[in-house]
Structures are given as C-alpha cells and as structure tokens.
Amino acid sequence: MTTLQTHHTAPLQVRAAGVRAGYGAETILDGIDLTVPAGVVSAIVGPNGCGKSTLLKTIARVMRPTEGRVLLDETSVHHQPTRQVAKHLGLLPQSNAVPEQLTVRALVERGRYPHRGVFSPWSEADRDAVAEALDVTGTAGLADRHVDELSGGQRQRAWIAMVLAQQTPVLLLDEPTTYLDLAHRLEILRLLRRLNRERGVTVVMVLHDLNEACRYADHVIAMRDGAVHASGRPRDVVTPELVRDVFGVACLTVADPVSGTPIVVPCDD
C-alpha cells in the first residue's frame, strides 16, 4: 500500500445525548450518552446484539433516534441535509448490496457523491481521490473487475476504498475487517491508524477482536445491553473485570510486548 498524501482537517466532535433507538417496538439503544473523542481512533466492542451497529447507524443518520440527539460539533445530524452530513461522516455498514455488473472503480466513484452536483463534470480532485483510495486499499488491480465476482476479502477492501474516496473527516466502520485474512486485517487497521495520524481523521470502528481493538485504537467504548458500560484508554478499560462483566468470560490481561497495550488471555474452565 502506498504512502498517504497528507490532508489535515480540523477534528469534528461526535456526541450522542440521551439517544434511544431501535426497530419497531424493540428498543436497542437505551439512553446512550457518549462523546467520541475528536481526532483519535475509537473502537466499539461488546457482545453480539448489544447495539454496536445500531449506534453506528444512528450516528451516521441512517437511523433516527426515538429520543435524544446525535450532534456533530453541537449541530444535530438529523436536522441537516443528507449530502451535507455525507461530507462529514463516511459510513461502512456491516453488509452491503451491490448491483450486478458494477465494477470496483464504479463502486469507489460513488464515494464522490457528496462533493459533486448532479450534472457536475468529474474534476481532477475527484479522479485523484478515487485513484488514491484504490491504491491505498490495494484494489487498483481490481478496478475493472465486477464487485460481485470478488472474494469476500477483496469485496470488503473495495467497499473501504469507496468510503475513503468520500474523504470525510469522520469515518464510521462497522466490522471493517470482516472476511479479511490476517495480513489484510492488519493492513486495513494500520491504514485506518495512518489516516488518523497523518490526516487527523476521526475513526470509529466496531471490532470483535479485543486484542486488535486495544492495539489499534486510542479509545475503547465497551457496550452491553444497549448502553455504554465503560469507555477510555484501552489499558484503563480492558481489564479482567470488564471482560467478565461485558462478555461473561474469565480472563487474564497481560501487556503486549510490542505495543504495551492489553492482551486478553481467556482462562480455561
């Protein structure tokens, strides 16, 4: 993967205030109060069904809360036009439907939608953004292939390229390493960290692997039963007590010999 060109942006703060949300009569998020630190990498962790994806969708304006507000620099995202929000928040959902015969390049070009008028010609900035997104995700060689013909890992990287082409100051990614093998998982996590370090992009991602969350995130948000159970630096949050309370797993935590961040070691029964 290539070196990213540096585009520094002013960090934007995302805040949820008293947010309740769900599907029909079922409440998933039950009064979320959360401030996502601006300009850092945050990882949302927690057991299946605890509300991680619902929280991300609500922040991204895909879902409307039944109570409370989601604020981007103290302005409600649900009171802003879709295109305006899409200039600030880029979302990679957990599952994506792809029209048949859509090429990887055409998919990535869709990331430029917020920056272009309906009849606007393609600019040099648009072409550069697409080319760089393909390059940094290692999908340039797949640009002319159809997305529905790709492997799961290749398809995931193509979707990540689309979100990167959007060039937003805040990236929201729901399980971005799904379907990826170890080498590509690490490449994507390192890429997201570099986007943060070199461009100041605020990254919020849902991860299942606690050890990867600790190593690649500056801030961990642990959820349980539709609420935030704890949040803070990995070494302060990811403890044997938290893993037991949130995941129901007995474990030890030891220091990663490379990064110094916690490694979760489950205990045998």
Structural description of this entry:
The protein is of the alpha/beta class and 269 residues long. It has helices spanning 52-59, 82-86, 104-109, 124-136, 152-165, 182-199, 210-216, 234-237, 240-247, and strands at residues 14-23, 26-36, 41-45, 67-72, 75-76, 89-92, 170-174, 202-206, 219-224, 227-232, 251-255, 262-266. It has a six-stranded mixed β-sheet with strand order 6-7-8-3-9-10, with helices on both faces. Strands 2-1-4-5 form a four-stranded antiparallel β-sheet, with helices on one face. A hairpin with a 2-residue loop joins strand 1 (14-23) and strand 2. The chain starts with 13 loop residues before the first strand and ends with a strand.
- Roughly how many Å apart are the termini? 42 Å
Unreliable residue runs: none
Structural class: alpha/beta
N-to-C SSE string, H for helix and E for strand: EEEHEEHEHHHEHEHEEHHEE
What's the overall geometry? Answer: globular
What is the strand arrangement across the widest sheet?
6-7-8-3-9-10
Annotation field: number of helices: 9
- Specify Rg, calculated over alpha carbons: 19 Å
| Count of strand segments | 12
Largest sheet: 6 strands, mixed
The residue fraction in helices comes out at 25-40%
Task: Give the percentage of residues in beta strands.
Answer: 25-35%
Overall mean pLDDT stands at 89
